[in-house]
Write a structure and sequence with these properties.
Layout: H1 2-19, H2 21-49
Helix pairs in contact: 1-2
Amino acid sequence: MKKALIILLIAFLVYFLLSEPEGMADVLGNIGSWFGDLFNAIITFFTELF
């Protein structure tokens, strides 16, 4: 069951990439931005802590 869900997710991502490349770029950009903000917040936390 778990393997089938992973395959389904990969198939959806490939379909989304081929049918909406700009939408996929937006999604990946948003994820990258979120990780950047998270990293920034962690660095700020430790800077203020010490």
